[in-house]
Amino acid sequence: MSYELLLPIVERGGKIRSFAESTKDNTRTSDWTEGFSGGKGQMETMELLIKTQLLLCRRFTKQMSRYKYPAYGILLSCVQLPDSCQQALSKDKSKLASTCLLLPERAEFVGTALKLLFSTCLVSPLNSEELVSESGIPVLCNLLFYFSDALAMLQIKPVLGAASARTVSEILGVIVHTVAGIAYFESGRKSIEGLPDLTKFCVYWRRCIDGTVCPDLDGKDILVKSYALEGIASMAKDPALQEILIGAGIVWPMLRMSLSYDPTLDHDTPHLDHEDLGVSVSATNVLAKLAVRGLGMLSGIHQDAPANELLTASLGKLLTPPVSQMLRNNRTGQILGVLNSNVERANIIWNVSMRRQLLLTLDRIEKERPSDANPSVKEELDVIGGFEFEALRQELCVGGIYVRLFNKDGKEAFSCVSNPTEFGQELLELAATIFNNRMIEKLWKPLPSSKVPVGAPFASATEITISSNDFQAVMTAISLLVRYDGLLDDFVCTSTIGPQILFSFLELPAKLEVCCRLMNFRALAGSSTRQFFFSCSFPLRSLT
Amino acid sequence: MSSKQQFADAVSREKCLWRLFRVLERPQNNEHQDKVEAGSEEDEPRKRHGWLVLEALSSSPSIAMQLFHTSGWIELLGVLVGYSKFTRIWSARVGAAKTLSRLLWDPATGPLAGK
């Protein structure tokens, strides 16, 4: 119906010719109508038609969604880069300022055409597929390069007679939004993956996020960033795109964004739209949420994306393993709340000093990183090196649980332990490792330690002695587990190490404080005849 | 009872009863002094608990048979009679005596001991 309404306008306006066709017989070329036969008149007619269609798409969304948009070929030819722009982009960027697409009238025309492109895709997913099949992605990709560079140039030095940075920024926003929308579909992702300049595309996409393309422009930058972040979440579903995006260094600005969240505004953060642009803090919260979702997808910690082990490991280092695992949650506010406040629980330690240290590290990484580089994922993430939080250096972490805090919080800490049995096993395994390393006796036969325990300081597990505070903390944690929960029973009775480690506790020198703790198990059990084994549901009830 | 049996079976399966014996039989540094017989060593409470553990374990068929078929029973006898390489404290002797008597009264191992 909408197209029927459009028909009279089309008929009055004469034949619509594609941009490519019209360039052949263009005889009165002027600067800003480069490539249009009929010059200004033809362009105005075309613009009128496009605006009308745009209006129809916006007003009659439901009706329009029934029809496949039939003129992507013409529309794409309207927004295609003319030769002069292409040459300036590829050879001499200093000439960008004088290219026709930056002239106000032409920029407005291209902007309107791009808006129609986006609107048609928005009304029907089938149109997105059609746009992809009409090779829309390479055209949009070229426009992204062109307008990004143009905007960067205009930011540095406004050009007299050229479109304003605000207009160009708006156009860039539409381009990024359209590509991000198309990336939602598998065909779109495949098309992006097949781009000849894929590496360059990812670098430019990162620039949309890190703000180098589009610094603060009355909130327009936030729109571009948010669309780019939405695109990341979609593109990360493709393993190849995921790798190249990570290689482009997209992770660093996203991490930075996730540290700019204000939890106090969590409940009244509006949905980001054009009216919200002035509300920078709220908008920053939206960006932080999108960034966190993107990080979850890029690393594959979120279930909707393929796993990327290297990034998962790196995020584990940068955010600590328990916090990085929160990236799997659909509710991004949870992890952002932790990252932007002080939290000290048995499973999470995060505070201002850690946040500051992470920001300094991100500063260093981004400063040392060449802006156009796109190395492999491994090379990109190697810059983290042996990053370690100063605040956690002295914390003993077993199975993702900070033992000191677990012991301190007692029973309340149990809610932080997702799998107490596994935690108990890890503790016993660590105790066995320490025994094997430090029980230096002729007749000592090593305990069978089935696996290397998981946790932060296990590289230095050999450094822990049976007289150290860490070992005492481990024993206290075991005592808490057996005191409050019988979950270790099965492990003790079914594993190879269980009975052996319990008997080995008897080997500890009596003078050690840890022995006193072990003896206290007896008191915990509440009877002088019950041994510490009893508190592990050890089978001595019949003796009491 | 089931957890007791399960644990005893685990100890038997892993053949780690020697770790307990090792602690129970070991003489203390000051054991050859006069006070020893009174059982005043610093880890005596621990050993006393250990003997109770052994006594409880020996009531399980799997452990009883293991004690009988290994050198366990003779080591217990050694503790009972005060063999010089073993501890000679009173609580250890009592523990060894109790465990041996359990073995003798056990319907599975008792008859075997007479042969």
Query: Which residue ranges of chain A are poorly predicted, with pLDDT under 50 across at least 5 consecutive positions?
Result: 16-30, 274-278, 452-459, 519-544
Compute the gyration radius of chain A: what is it? 31 Å
Radius of gyration of chain B, rounded?
14 Å
User: How many structural domains does the protein architecture of chain B include?
Assistant: 1
Report low-confidence residues of chain B grouped into runs of 5 or more. Answer: 34-40
> How many extended strands of chain A?
4
Mean pLDDT reading of chain B: 80
List keywords for this structure.
heterodimer; A: 544 residues; mainly alpha; two-stranded antiparallel ribbon; two-stranded antiparallel sheet; 1% strand; disordered C terminus; B: 115 residues; 7 helices; 65% helix; 0% strand
Detailed description of the structure:
The complex is a heterodimer of chains A (544) and B (115). By secondary structure, chain A is mainly alpha-helical. Among the domains of chain A are: 1-196, no CATH class; 413-543, no CATH class. In chain A, 58% of the residues lie in helices and 1% in strands. Chain A has helices at residues 2-13, 19-24, 39-59, 61-64, 72-79, 83-90, 104-123, 125-133, 136-156, 165-182, 186-193, 198-210, 220-235, 239-247, 251-258, 280-299, 309-319, 321-325, 332-339, 352-368, 377-381, 403-409, 420-438, 469-484, 488-494, 498-504, 513-525, and strands at 343-344, 349-350, 397-398, 401-402. Chain A has a two-stranded antiparallel sheet with strand order 1-2. In chain A, helix 3 (39-59) runs parallel beside helix 7, helix 5 packs antiparallel against helix 7 and helix 9 packs across helix 12 (198-210). The longest helix of chain A has 21 residues, at 39-59. Chain A is elongated. Chain B contains 7 helices and no strands. The relative contact order of chain B is 0.17. In chain B, helix 3 (44-57) runs parallel beside helix 6 and helix 5 (72-81) crosses helix 6 (90-105). Chain B is an all-alpha fold. Chains A and B meet through helix 25, helix 26 and helix 27 of A and helix 1, helix 2 and helix 3 of B.
